[in-house]
Amino acid sequence: MTERLCGNISSCSPYMIWRNYSIGIMSLSIVPLLCSMASSNVYPFLTLAMSLALFAFVRGNRRSKSENCAFLPYIAARVLLLFTFVSVAAVLLFSYVDRKIMHLLPSLSMLLLSVTVLVVWGIMRYRSVNNTFCVDCILRNGVPYEREALGHIYFREIRYLLRRVGVGAFAIALVEWVYYLFFFDSRLELTLLDNAVFIYFPIVAAVVDCAILGFRYFVIDIFYRRGEGVRNYDGLAPVNGTKVVRVVVFSLDKVYYQKRKDGSIYDTPFEFVTDYSEIPSSGEAVTYMTGRLGALPVNAVRFCYGSSDPVNRRGIEHFFCFVDDDADVDKYEESTATAGRWFDKPALEREFYAGSFSKMASSEIHRIYTIMVTSKLYDVKGRRKIGDKGYVPSFTMEELRAVDVDFNDSHWMMLSKFNKDIPFRWLRVVWYKYVEGLG
């Protein structure tokens, strides 16, 4: 197992959500103004340049040590890229159908842009957090429950902002198309009212929208800094300068969990808080488990994966602990007057799908299953090693003790979605790696 640095958790303020939203929305709103200054043959290249600039911003943000959520600039970049192709098609179409309206196309760009926004918005809303951008972020930075209050704020607010973009795009599209169909005369030059509707109305709407949201995130930031937000998950919560270490106990082909104090969900009872460091605290995990279970076999404790916030100096680490039989855990239950349950693989799967585990435990189980299956199916380059397409290999939990797989390497998680079994994989790899900056 490679004991390398843990992954990075987003550690910016709610202000950054507003900033990135404003960058995305304002980039779209100024398109008609910029296009009106260019000819019909040039403005598609202008929007292409804007799209690539936004992709560069998103890529740079991904590689930053203090990464923050750039989901809205990412959507805006995709909108502008699609709009570029739509614009080229419109220019080619009208060059044959009606050349008289060609010179008006740049000024009327919001008509097509608003529809393009709705198309991309619909796709992103349908895919929800399963889109490539969010999947990559979660794999590298951890699930929201590992990011303290800010993780929950991000998860909730991004969904809220996505709905807001859809409503705003629909409202602007409605205004633009109603005016175009019932009040606009294409035989004349653009009037002041035409310019106000097609060019300046989107900008004013975007400025007002950003101003309202600015106040919203000012209030959210106050509550966040006071520590009045939600906790990171239903267990210990890391504060600045500390990290939570969680240990999951295995015995042969079984895994051990206890119900939380409220008796509603299962989770590991073995977790503690220690001083923050970016290096996995393997020694402290061994000492902690020895104090709970007594003498352990050699190499019984193994680092699984972790997430780290180097800015606020906090993090969460996940370890395995392998015992030879149940007796040590039985003694722990007697000394603590608690009782747990051993799950074999079928029972674990059944209770997992029934939602019987805490969100953090569910995240651990999902990662273990995904990486074990993916590492059996594919090599590090995504080439299938065994079976035909559609074949899913099985594994036993006993294999976790000796398997030569780095569970902290998100490359395996990405291969579970982007391997050589998917169509046009090489095109997708080029796009995600060199345009979107995907790892």
UniProtKB/TrEMBL annotation:
TM regions (residue ranges): 21-39, 45-62, 74-97, 103-123, 165-184, 196-219
Tree of life domain: Bacteria
Keywords on record: Membrane, Transmembrane, Transmembrane helix
Listed name of the protein: Transmembrane protein
